């Protein structure tokens, strides 16, 4: 039988893994959609390439923050809850 602390450790590690997995999936989908539509817009209007590329990269960087937030939550789950830092 598992003790309460062992069970908490297992649940926290599983929650951290799920958090990073879902955060990465959402980020990848967002960046892919932004990149696809950005390239489509550049193809339709090549003269606006600089402005479209800049806007596309800003959108991609904003979409990437989701993965960073997921990483912060996963690290907090592992180190603060499990190890009691």
Outline the structure in words.
With 85 residues, the chain is mainly α. The protein has a domain of 49 residues. It is 88% helix and 0% strand. The chain has 2 helices and no strands. The chain starts with a helix and ends with a helix. The model has no long low-confidence stretch (mean pLDDT 92).
In short:
It contains two helices and no strands.
List the helices and strands and how they pair.
Blueprint: H1 4-44, H2 49-82
Helix pairs in contact: 1-2
Spell out the key features of this protein:
about 80 residues, mainly alpha, rod-shaped
* Global outline: rod-shaped
Tell me about the biggest sheet? none
**Count of runs of 4 or more consecutive helical residues:** 2
Q: Gyration radius, to the nearest Å? A: 19 Å
Ends apart, CA distance between termini = 26 Å
Overall pLDDT score? 92
- How many β-strands, per DSSP? 0
> How much of the polypeptide forms β-strand, as a percent range?
under 5%
- SSE order, as H and E? HH
Which stretches of 5+ consecutive residues score pLDDT under 50?
A: none
Sheet/helix structural class: mainly alpha
Helical residues, percent = over 70%
